[in-house]
Amino acid sequence: MNVEQQALRAREASRPLAGATRSAKDAALHAMADALAKAEAAVLDANALDVRRAESVGTSAALIDRLRLTADRVSGMVNGLRSLAALPDPVGDVVRGWTNANGVQVRQVRVPFGVVGIIYEARPNVTADAAGICLKSGNAVLLRGSSSAAESNAAIVDALRTGLGATDLPADAVQLVVGPREVTNDLMAARGLVDVLIPRGGAGLIDAVVRGSQVPVIETGVGNCHLFVDATADPAMALEILLNAKTQRPSVCNAVETLLVHAEIAETFLPHALQVLQAAGVTVHGDEQTARYGEVLRAEEADYAEEYLSLDLAVAVVDSFDRAVAHIRTYSTGHSETIVTESQTSAQRFVAEIDAAAVLVNASSRFVDGGEFGFGAEIGISTQKLHARGPMGLPEMTSTKYVLTGAGQTRG
Amino acid sequence: MNVEQQALRAREASRPLAGATRSAKDAALHAMADALAKAEAAVLDANALDVRRAESVGTSAALIDRLRLTADRVSGMVNGLRSLAALPDPVGDVVRGWTNANGVQVRQVRVPFGVVGIIYEARPNVTADAAGICLKSGNAVLLRGSSSAAESNAAIVDALRTGLGATDLPADAVQLVVGPREVTNDLMAARGLVDVLIPRGGAGLIDAVVRGSQVPVIETGVGNCHLFVDATADPAMALEILLNAKTQRPSVCNAVETLLVHAEIAETFLPHALQVLQAAGVTVHGDEQTARYGEVLRAEEADYAEEYLSLDLAVAVVDSFDRAVAHIRTYSTGHSETIVTESQTSAQRFVAEIDAAAVLVNASSRFVDGGEFGFGAEIGISTQKLHARGPMGLPEMTSTKYVLTGAGQTRG
């Protein structure tokens, strides 16, 4: 079956799904969870094949770790599906409504997109997560996983479809798209059949989809995030936030990648901070001024542009607030940008002048996260300005429809 | 100056504009209005050149009418700018907000997109309207008008920039993009410099932009709208709504283009309806069953796919509610779809099963309009599912930003 045929089946499946009650969808999520739990052995066997192949072609240990499933990780997927069932259903929510002077009632109501395509990389747990989020939000999904996880994804989708098959909802609401590279292009060309594409993965994948797709795209994830220690910052607070934002989980998009320090506080802040960072295992790539305050690798221009996703940190001393803003404007990917300051003026200016999905004052950028926001589920963190910006929960996986109800009114 | 240079200037201008107060923006709108009023003679002279050239190349009377400016139309633009000043400012609106358990305050705040590109056809009044809407919503704008209106657009933009130049806001917030066809391609390739492109015009223009752009697009306007007269419809109400939706202003996107009549009511409804339509100057393109009830042109398949934008109407008799839904699903452009019915079940099913920006029960589709919705200004009617769907007012011309404020909180 080619992508067009799969998309047409997804479109068909999307119709009953769009009209399904919350109870029906929640029952389906539990059925999917039950079937996945039952298929644990098959999923782990399939995953072992993927892991073996990855090892045989010399895949890095980090990538193999993302690829590998364990009984715990399968349980994680199963529980993820069940917790989606516990979340409110965004479909049918009335966003706003009013009655026109002539008596026509207008309501803006949340409706599913229809068919969502997810293009993602190695982690096979995305398969179950994305399928569950799409189902709960009333969308049929086409899952285009990485070839490196082909066996795992096939086993997971097989289980999910078996679960769905035992309910009133169509199994074609969840489909895996397999085949060579060109298949991804077909998916990106399926305008009119697929309503939105969401790439999840590294910068390369996201950029390729954003540039190549004729289907509307929601861009997620790349985070070259900055933390600016303003002249008036509380040094202890700044260090605590920095350590948290850099080291608590360095591989995620809301981790800090560059530290900017106001020259007026550099001497107070940096000597101790550099020691503490080193003790925490952080490799500092600093500019000339930073090097005055401790032993650091010398930063190249490229360091400031890089999303390390590791225990590396680029550091620069800036002569003024304006220089900090200019630096961030040059290198920011528009994800999460932080200022630590005791100055109300600086805080306000930073919030106003920095253009990003999230701007933080005196708090760790690790809070920019669907879980921390209380969304319960997250399909990703949007770094684009259209439709959704920042952590995307279930309501962000919907569109709206205006419903106008009259008693024969016409326009004068 | 090439498109990239203009976009960079727009980006620079967008910064003070994003932070401008409502008072500053309203003063600028009045200054633009004053300058445009003062430039009336220059604008009309420039327009006369465009009209003469259009006539010399045999442009249709309808297009020349859209192109032609009069003192009244210039006043319309001037008043449009002043009425924008009277509208609330969406920028800074807190969409939602909460406080996390750890005390971190989260607010989702409306912010401008930044730089908006508008690609549009002959009507030069779009130049002032779009510039005003973008300015009020805090966005810098790149206006790419039609070459047929080049002189008119240049004169209008010249006046608007003169007006802006007398205020604290940067004149580069409003720029006209001129040059050969390739310039439009440059605009569509300006990802990262231009935040969103909005095409305004015919189906061909919109499709070209949607398919060719790497900048995110908001698709507006094509409306192949249907009216379904259900078996239980009140025939008098159905006819009144049909006449209004077809004839009140046939050239607009929310006018009805196809009438579907349930077979059970065809004999009651169609004979009289066809007479009344004929008397109203409507040319009916009917299927075989329609032809039983009056004299009609025979409809081809293509008639059902066409957005006439004229006093033409395609008509088909359908055997069931499901056939009506299937027909609409095949030919709808997802703009505005209407049912006339006395059946609560049919009304509910129609609203649930038809996927469009607006679905209407017993009311004219002419109500699907920013003015009728009370939005005060409208940049267009979105027929896409991302970001905005239906009439777009000022809030739809903004993005959002999460602002997190803490007192040193870190993630555990």
UniProtKB/TrEMBL annotation, chains A, B:
PROSITE patterns found in the cross-reference section: PROA
Enzymatic class: oxidoreductase
Keywords attached to this entry: Amino-acid biosynthesis, Cytoplasm, NADP, Oxidoreductase, Proline biosynthesis
Pathway(s) annotated for this protein in UniProt: Amino-acid biosynthesis; L-proline biosynthesis; L-glutamate 5-semialdehyde from L-glutamate: step 2/2
Single Gene Ontology MF annotation: glutamate-5-semialdehyde dehydrogenase activity
UniProt xrefs under NCBIfam families: PRK00197.1 (NF001221), proA (TIGR00407)
Record-stated family: Belongs to the gamma-glutamyl phosphate reductase family.
Name by which UniProt lists this protein: Gamma-glutamyl phosphate reductase
Organism: Microlunatus panaciterrae
Phylogenetic lineage: Bacteria, Bacillati, Actinomycetota, Actinomycetes, Propionibacteriales
